[in-house]
Fold this sequence. Notes:
This protein is α/β, with parallel strands linked by helices. The chain is 38% helix and 9% strand. It has helices at 61-66, 75-91, 106-122, 126-145, 193-199, 212-225, 244-248, 256-259, 278-296, 327-339, 349-373; strands spanning 46-47, 96-98, 103-104, 174-180, 204-208, 230-233, 241-242, 269-275, 303-304.
Amino acid sequence: MISTSRGFAFKWSPSSLSIYSKTHMESKPRILQNPFLISASRSPPREACLSEDGEASIITLQEWQAWGTTSPVPNVVSRIAEELIDMEKDFDARMSFGGNGGKLQGDFKIKEDKKHRATYQALGDSEQKLQFFSARQIACRLLGSRGYLCQKCWLPFEDCMCSRVAPCKLWHGMRFWLYMHPKDFLRQNNTGKLLWQVFGVEAANLCLFGIAEHEEIMWNTFKLAGKGKVWCLYPNKNAVVKSVQDALGQEFSENLEHSGTTAHGDEILNFILIDGTWSNSAAMFRRLKDQAKEAWGDEDLPCISLATGASAMHKLRPQPSWDRTCTAAAAIGLLSELQVLPKFSSYELDKQADTLEDALVVLLEALTNRRLRMGRSITRKVRHTIDIC
């Protein structure tokens, strides 16, 4: 465990951050964001879950992977969590979460906020700041969600929907990559989590934006697969975007059917789903393009645009336009559009899409019931802020 100096400064240096690739991320980090709009504001304050000896414990591999990933615990996340736990001893105060957005509260919040902002400003470049920002967001959410959120569905235990979600095997010739912004990690109304709830963590991989270990795992897989087997679902007007028909209807040889039976990772079709607010998605897509250039010498990341309409989640979370939808609905749309192509018609992708859509309805019902129980409206006015998750 890394102890905290009495000068109350996070122990961060350029060597403590694993530099992956440069990106621009200059906005100040913020405290734990709202997991479900502002419904959590009615929840009573809660302290970080303690171990048997009465102290908060470090993040174990078992705990980390139970949240929906197969990766080791990221070093930066583990280090910040340890720093926060040490701060409890230094300040003789426990971490408390709750209020509007489930944020850190009380005197601990005030002292920690000054400390992390000073550390952030002292870091040398935007890459180091991004890694610190992402790791801190994730560490706070992990510590604040212990004993409060179900690790599978990311809902409070009293609203857990796991028993109503049916698992389904995804065609093993394709794989989803959920490229998730840290502010959407453990967010209750996030729909990307449904992909690994339904298809499993091997078929739907979580990759957290700004976490070097996650991004390295994803890009090592893409390098092995080759640029021709990687697509990003992103309706970017400044990029060359193809329909599913254009991208996958003609480019594959008659040997495609054998890709579903091979065990080689380079035969799998990889689809990236950007999982964050629309306002954050531009920076995330820009980082993907930078990483594509580093991997292949060309930042022209192949993009697919879907003909997907509005999802059921529009009832609670309106999108900026009807052609933009939630992450799970995008995956449903992709599976449905692939199903109509002759080369994919034998893989029962329509049934896999239906199962995922059923899970999305279950999530909508769980969130709706929670809002009703808390006396909140179950409909929302369309706002100018841009939202996707």
